[in-house]
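Input record (one chain):
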Amino acid sequence: MDTRIETPDSDWVKEQNSQGFEVLHLPALEVEPLNTILDWSGVEALFLASPRAVFLAQEKLKNFDGPIWVVGEGTAKALTTLGLKATEVGDGSGAFSFLKNLQSRYAGTFPISVLAWISAEETAVDLDFIASQFQLKIRHFPVYRTVFKKYDSSYMNSLSKPKKWFFYSGRAVESFASFISPEDDVVCFGKSAEQKYDQIIKRV
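The corresponding structure, as predicted from the sequence alone:
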């Protein structure tokens, strides 16, 4: 059960098939781009929270000449397709951990004070808390929102069991939470998916 929005790579599907799995691509979410005005006036650095944020903000990103921070390797790769390079790349453990590690490298004080946060409308972290914790002024630029994709419960319940789920965001976990059975195997990619799964399913 691959829940990412994009169609999974064919080589990945073949790999799963070789292990005896039938792969079903069931996107958990649908994306609605937002017409947010991106104005970098006074902004000293950009933080990109996902590859999708990169693509939706791509034209304005090319006009920014300061440091660009990204949450993980996938977002960094998306940036390279635009001919841009991330100044700092997180390890995929989440925005808070990324900023904490970066802060320690800068001996406790960031070289910037105003950070543009480019992401979905709903963020996996509390931006007010982040701003307070790291003494930053954060300007949030939501470039898209995600909405739950609806599936017929009779269809979902008719699928073979046990299932193996691949989740890539907390929102995806929320979307399918009612269909996850105790005997299912769940694989979470990224901090937001892990946290939401722990919160909803109460995994010990």
